[in-house]
Write a structure and sequence with these properties.
elongated; six-stranded mixed sheet; 308 residues; alpha/beta; four-stranded antiparallel sheet
Length: 308
């Protein structure tokens, strides 16, 4: 569905994305990274708003830049807020549908249906200036789905939504992804996790990891990390730990021992039975956070040259 081959995008001397190669098939994909990581540039290349400085971009097998045949098949919800506050959601969405080639009557019908899907029917004829940010987010999403695209591209789509609206729109997008394709960019990993999407992690304009959650978890399991152990006999535990394979450093602070190891998961599995066999009393064993949020933070710190 989407293929980037050694793509670099420069803004003068500033790098937006740097030598990115990735192939994404159909289905749901999450693009995660902190603000400024290059997510919006990546989406701009995919949606044909930007031309790569180097490399090749293909969407549905063709270059998207300046290609109406490809662009008609893409629905895009940008991160930027809607600026024309004098128009109404119905006018805005209807205008976007007309751009894809539908007649005025068909565009009105599609816009009305899309606004109903996102829960904005009651406010569809109110000026955008009178709507909350969350309601304007719904209007943007309606504009992205109204022409029934094959690929839906969402940039920070749930920003500004209250919890109920967030839940409703997550369910809407999940339903969409069952039959068509989806790319969602977010700096909040739990939003992508809720969509059951594959993950691509972008940092500093580079794609540093991609795959499903299990694949990235296996990747992070192999990275160095810390294990914090509270023990009734901390010095005895430290002596036991420092002799184990893969341990790089041990620090004792009161009843807590901080162990830096090349394989935190393997260390925990091995050290607990050894400590018990030696008669040591373990009060707490806390390996590095292996949740998706923890893994994401670990990759960010690693990219910045900070030990986990």
């Amino acid at each position: 569905m989407i293929e980037l081959d050694r793509v670099t995008k420069l803004y003068g001397s500033v790098i937006g994305v740097n030598d990115v190669s990735v192939a994404l098939g159909g289905g749901a994909h999450g693009l995660v990274g902190p603000n400024g990581a290059g997510k919006t540039t990546f989406l701009g290349l995919v949606t044909g708003q930007l031309r790569p400085t180097l490399g090749r971009v293909r969407v549905f097998g063709a270059a998207p830049f300046g290609n109406p045949a490809v662009l008609r098949r893409i629905g895009y919800c940008p991160a930027a807020d809607l600026l024309d506050r004098g128009t109404t959601p119905l006018e805005w969405v209807r205008y976007l549908v007309r751009l894809t080639g539908y007649t005025a009557a068909a565009a009105t019908a599609r816009a009305t249906r899309a606004l109903e899907q996102v829960g904005l029917s009651a406010a569809s004829r109110r000026p955008l200036a009178t709507l909350s940010k969350g309601m304007r987010q719904r209007a943007k999403l309606a504009g992205a789905i109204a022409h029934d695209p094959d690929l839906l591209v969402l940039d920070e789509p749930f920003d500004g939504l209250d919890p109920v609206a967030r839940h409703d729109l997550v369910e809407l997008v999940r339903t969409w992804a069952r039959t068509r394709s989806l790319v969602v960019a977010s700096h909040l990993l739990h939003e992508v996790e809720a969509l059951d999407a594959g993950l691509a992690v972008i940092l500093g304009g580079r794609l540093v990891a991609s795959g499903d959650a299990a694949e990235i978890r296996r990747l992070v399991e192999g990275l160095p990390g810390d294990v914090r152990v509270r023990c009734a006999e901390p010095r005895a535990f430290a002596e036991l730990a420092i002799a184990m394979e893969g341990v790089e450093a041990v620090r004792v602070d009161g009843d807590t021992v901080l162990v830096a190891t090349r394989a935190p998961g393997g260390f925990v599995a091995a050290v607990v039975p050894r400590a018990c066999a030696a008669g040591l009393t373990l009060l707490e064993v806390a390996p590095a956070d292996r949740s998706l949020d923890g893994m994401f933070g670990h990759l960010v710190r690693l990219h910045r040259g900070i030990r986990a």
